[in-house]
TrEMBL record:
One of its GO terms (molecular function) is ubiquitin protein ligase binding. Belongs to the cullin family. Pfam families: Cullin. One of its GO terms (biological process) is ubiquitin-dependent protein catabolic process. This is Cullin 2. It comes from Trypanosoma cruzi Dm28c. Residues 33-341 form the Cullin N-terminal domain. InterPro entries: Cullin_N, Cullin_repeat-like_dom_sf. The lineage of its organism: Eukaryota, Discoba, Euglenozoa, Kinetoplastea, Metakinetoplastina.
Amino acid sequence: MGRVPASDDFRRDVVKAYSGPLFATTFDFGVLWNKVDSVCNKILGWTDSPEFRGQTVIQQVVRAYTIVYRLVSAPCLDCPKLVRGTSAQQDTIGGGSEGTQALVVYYLLRETIRKRLSSVVTHRLKMSLTAEPPTLLQVYLTEWRTFIIAVNHLKVVFSYLHSPWQKHELPSEQPLLPTEVVALVQWSDIIMSPEICEGLAEQIFNLISRDRLHRLDEGSTSLVRDISHSLAMLNDPRHTAYSSLIEESYLVHLQRFYKENINVLKAGGILSYIERSLIIFEDEMERVNRILNKCTMLPMLQRLSDVLIDSEIPYIKSYLPTWILNDRGYFLNKMYQLLSKKFYRFVGA
């Protein structure tokens, strides 16, 4: 990435970069990027640096923003080339246009995020895999919150990278995704490995199963709910972490649990079955609202209807003529309440 001057020269160049006129000096790309990269690493690891707080953060973010502005607005010396293809057949992207320099900054930002996630966050999560549950969930949530706060600062640092002027000069096949999207994609690609996902799912469903038997305390409830919401943020056409990790398995567990207990529910007779089924619907709706993502509500109602209503229609229907003939209003009202649950998926819960 070009030469790196001696430390005094390096500091002078960096100061000029964020305080001098835009085109007064032509800077070495590597010198300026090294400073930005240093600030980015401090931002990404802000919880590890007690001194990186308050005014220090503001000053560093503003200076880094100014340097990024210069990196993408004015030609620099020794800007790295972007190439595509194999080492044998490489094609230079952009041909040295001004937009290529912005694209280099974009890819270097992505690489900085990847390095942090690969070397630090992944290590911490893997270490917690062998710890007592729900340590993995707690560590995941802590690292996620730290990361999201850091990304909000990085958005400021690289905001000028996404100005219309920069995008105008870019090669058409090289769009610049917003900083937060880049960060979330990197999190999905690096952090959500099969090993970590399996560990998360196991600990999540241990807590959900416990909740079905005995309501979780507020701490555990908050933990599952916050994990659910954090995973839902990773959902896009390529990444459906919440659906694949929690929702799909939750629906399978739900269906299996009530199928296995259907005879227990019917043991007290038809009225008891209907009343207990109504309670189950209310309990499961409350559970979704309390600890899962709202998008799970309609699929949950569908699965529960399949087990408690659709598959038991012959059983329920066999009592209907007698209740009508004997004017059993209370029984009919309860049956109507249960059958109406089938239509929640059309009108909302």
